[in-house]
Amino acid sequence: MEKVTPFLMFEGHAEEAMKYYTSLIEDSEITSIARYGAEGPGNEGSVIQATFTLKGQEFMCIDSNISHAFTFTPSYSMFLTCSSEQEINDLYEKLSEGGSTLMPLGDYSFSKKFGWIVDKFGVSWQLTLPF
Predict the structure, then answer these.
(1) CA dist., res. 123 & res. 75, Å (int)
(2) 66 Cβ partners below 8 Å, 6+ apart?
(3) What's the CA gap between 48 and 14, in Å, rounded?
C-alpha cells in the first residue's frame, strides 16, 4: 500500500467545492483535475477525478455521474485545529454559510472554542481552538 487518501464524492459540485475549500484554508491548492469529455459517461466538463490539498493533507474527489440515495454524513468530518480566535470565527462563518449547524461555536470545556457545521456541499467540519 502506498498511502491512504480521503475521497469525496459530489454530484456535480466537485470543482466548486475544491475551489471554495482551497480559497478558505491557507497553504491549500487544487493539484489535478481530469474531466469528462463529450463522450461521457458524465456531463461534459464535470470531474472524473481530482486531487487537492488542505494544509498539506491530500484529498481526492469526483462528480458522480450516477445519482445515489446517500450523501455525506457528519460521522465523517474534517477536523480543523485553528490558530487564533479570528481564524476560527472566519472559518466557522464562511463554512456554515448555506449549510447547517450541528454544534454552535462556543466553549464546550474540551477546547477554548469549538463548532461543528455542515457546509453547503453537505461536508461536515469540526473547528477547534485549543487552550
Answers:
(1) 10
(2) none
(3) 9
